[in-house]
Amino acid sequence: MKYMNIRIVIYGFIMCLLPVCTQPVFAQQALTAEDVLERVDRNLSSGTRIVESSMTIHGRRTSRTITSKGWSQGDKRSFTEYLSPASEAGTKMLKLEDQLWIYTPAADRTIQISGHMLRQSVMGSDLSYEDMMDDRKLSEIYTARITGKDTLGGRNVLVIEMTAKVNDVAYYRQKAWIDEERFVPLRQEMYARSGQLLKRTDLTDVERIQNRWFPRTMVYKDMLKEGKGTEFRVISIIFNQEIPGHIFSKASLR
Amino acid sequence: MKKFLLKGILHDRGRSLVPVFVVAIGALLTVFLYSWVTGAMGDSIEMSSNFNTGDVKVMTRAYAAEADQIPNDLAILGAGRITEQLKNRWPDMDWVARIRFGALADFPDREGLTRGQGPVAGWAIDLLSANTKEPSRFNLPGAIVRGAMPSQSRECLISEELASRFDVKPGDSFTLFGTTMEGGFSFTNYIVSGTLKFGSAGLDRGAVILDIRDARSAFCMDDAAGEILGYLPVSYYDHKMAVAVQSRFNADIKEFAPDEEKMFEPVMLTLKEQSGMAELVDYSKAISAMLIFIFVAAMAIVLWNAGLLGGLRRYTEFGVRIALGEDKGHIYRSLLWEAVMIGCIGSLAGTAAGVALVYALNVKGFDMSGYMQNATILMPSVIRPAITPVVYYIGFIPGVFSMLLGNALAGAGIYRRETARLFNELEV
To answer: Which is deepest, B103, B266, B377, B427, by most CB within 10 Å?
Structure first.
């Protein structure tokens, strides 16, 4: 009788705990692809951002590293100043809406980049101007569906396929491997409408920064050209700090 | 006999003038067609050689593999030393370093902001050295529409079409936005010294020509060159000569190799091995040979007929001569000698007229630009007939041999002539 009572108590305890233990699992199962994208956006997007970064471009003969400091406000306004090497230092880029200007001290000119030039590589990297300019939230430009689960770099990931729901998007389709727990993409593959794989990005060194998960290292690979890709490292990043309006003006280019 | 026959030809013009005239026309047309076809085909190849391929071209292996994309990150390093070595080894050839590039030309407004911009295809060549042959190789002085040749650093030439599109005139400045050899930003300001019209749509759409020293500075290509071109000391491309130079260079490649890595070793390609040129060279040879064969054959048939008719016209004369006791063999031989003489005189006259005509056209050229407005391949807009040693004798092939053959066939009838039937024919 005594053992019977103990079994009932234990059974009752387990039954009580069961809903609590399984709640995240069920909740996660209930997540839609759109929910996942929104959580990703919460990690990667911000009102404003100030980033100091280095970009290592692996050429066929040499590799070189360019450092820069960037200020951005939402997905409409951004300003970048290149700090090193000496040949690039002082070059500045300003993005306002869908327009892009570059100022170069070498020619003391401000040049607008438009049209097909936006698809060209930035400084021989695997990134195009279009890639650098498009900072919109994934949930705003893609519809998504979860196609499976996998593991990547020892992390459980959700595999998500995204299809563009707007016309002015650089990549019609994307496939992303999203960390199931942190909601940060660990790999992204970008495809053309034809199905051709155009670019691949591997995101690593995910850290907790200002109460969000953020990848400090991103390796971009243009799949249409040879090479080891371009490594983008975040040296420092500050989210949601107020940025003076004059930063995003043509006057700040000179 | 020959002297007698010659006197007959010269004095009896009623008998010889028409055949001489026909032969002369045939020889003239043969000389002209040969010269025209050779010139047109040769000029196309020559223009490709001058602008793009050289007779031979040295590049790194990696650059050569992607030459169509102009990958300047794979350019030859130590280009000065390699050029010197090439000059020492083949001193009779002209060796020039060049950089080709694609860039964006940005034309500013008064405030220095972008007013207009367009993609350009650039050639950086030796424009400013004292004895450079590059401007004449590109026919730059002749192609200038407005302005003048660059006389100092940071001056350049742009195509007239590009200048018109962006309302640019000589003296205006613009920024060339390109990529350095390492892939960095390259922004350089240039002054337009003049505008050009080559007559080839592919070039006229957006060509920029600047001095190679400026390009080296702009694209961080110090002592580097995308390509080193070699020009043989002959008028038209000679594949055998080019292959001989190439074989020796590639055999000695180790001496030149400035880089440990194989892909950056210099390699030499002949004109024929570059971007579709094999097809053009073979096609032009085949087409010119075919055209010339067809025309010479056609002229031979015409002149053979002339000879045949001439022989038949004199059927009665042969009968009378046989009746007078002249040997048939003698008549036949005299007929053939006459044919040779008429053929030679006509061919000589026709060749002289033909050579004079092609000389005149060679000097003036024939402007075909009106027919090439939408052409995208590199072709000269002014076609000039070629004056080669062949033009001095090609007219004699149909002129003499066809005349001889026609008369030989017509004269065969002499041996079938019978004196008994002769009086019947003469209605005596």
So the answer is: B266
